[in-house]
Specification:
The chain has about 110 residues and is of the alpha+beta class. It has a single domain (about 5-109), classed as 3-Layer(aba) Sandwich (Hypothetical protein yfbM fold). It has helices spanning about 35-40, 45-50, 65-75, 80-100, and strands at about 5-10, 20-30, 55-60, 100-109. It has a four-stranded antiparallel beta sheet with strand order 2-1-4-3.
Amino acid sequence: MGVDVVLVRVERKGTSPKRRHARQVAVVLDTQDRFARLCVSSSLPMLSRADPYGTLVLTRQETNQFVSEVEAESVRSEDPELKDLLGEVLGLARCCEAQEGSELRLEGD
């Protein structure tokens, strides 16, 4: 039931959606379901949208709010393993913010 965080680079040749190609750049695996449990229990709007059984695609523009919410949860957390995981998630989200043509995907099982 984990929610893996995947940084994707989207390449488009022309304007047709058929020519859209997504390439995985990096991933943070939620092997112990820590991020999934955080998202399900979170009262923050972006995090609570993550679905442990589906995929949520965040555009580069949406990652700003996502970063703020993950930072807030990291400050609140007292679990060092969760803090480390959130640090990795933040790293991918910040890369997404900085790179044109990037998406961040929250992929449930």
